[in-house]
Write a sequence for this structure.
């Protein structure tokens, strides 16, 4: 059963995990999309980076979070995508070997159009030590039920 | 010559491009990180999606934008990453065959710590028809010169 705009309740909290972060994936994502040395050069990062080693691209962290959302809250959602995101933050770096899980909380419903509404939800991503490595507020378009 | 915090001027506008968006890359990114049908199933998307065909994951658009930033403004920047992003928007979908370019404008400098400062910059991504497909305001940490 698809989850339509009408089915979503403000205050609902859902979780999903875990996503295992491999060194190979950290390097290959960064080499393709974010080739900065503190993401792609483990030796130099160990010696010179303030993080003490190579860390995942923030966009990789966002993408892994999305994968957990699609496997969780969004798996049955009647959505056609998101308009945007507010307050995206990377407070703690993600490192090879980390294991990530997410928590998604519905903040607000906005009845935008006759055929769809906006769900505002805060998604937070944590590592195996429950440190928050990522958070954002998403504005996701959900279809409405057509009750005919 | 690395570009330090002191070297960045508010109001500076830089551009970079083009990034050619292939169908293969749209599908493979989405299959891995955002496996929703309007990203991964071209036939169904052509028939049922309001977009009339498969579109790129918004996180893929963000990642391609990052690749253009790293090849442009950030190529010589003395940066150690970003704290976060505000007002991320996806106003127009990105489709296979699109060609993307970016424009980056420095909005503000915040002298955060003795050893580093924050550069707030608006990045906008356009397709070959100069439609804005993506925008965000990034908060990037730049190192300061140590003048000894």
């Amino acid at each position: 059963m698809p989850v339509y705009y009408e089915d979503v309740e403000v205050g609902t909290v859902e979780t999903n995990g875990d996503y295992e972060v491999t060194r190979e994936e950290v390097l290959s994502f960064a080499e393709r999309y974010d080739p900065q040395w503190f993401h792609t050069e483990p030796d130099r990062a160990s010696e010179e980076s303030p993080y003490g080693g190579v860390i995942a691209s923030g966009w990789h962290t966002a993408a892994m979070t999305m994968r957990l959302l699609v496997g969780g809250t969004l798996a049955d959602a009647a959505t056609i995508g998101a308009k945007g995101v507010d307050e995206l933050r990377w407070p703690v770096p993600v490192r090879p070997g980390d294991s990530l899980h997410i928590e998604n909380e519905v903040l607000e419903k906005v009845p935008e159009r006759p055929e769809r509404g906006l769900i505002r939800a805060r998604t937070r991503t944590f590592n195996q030590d429950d440190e928050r490595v990522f958070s954002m507020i998403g504005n996701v378009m959900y279809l409405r039920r057509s009750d005919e």
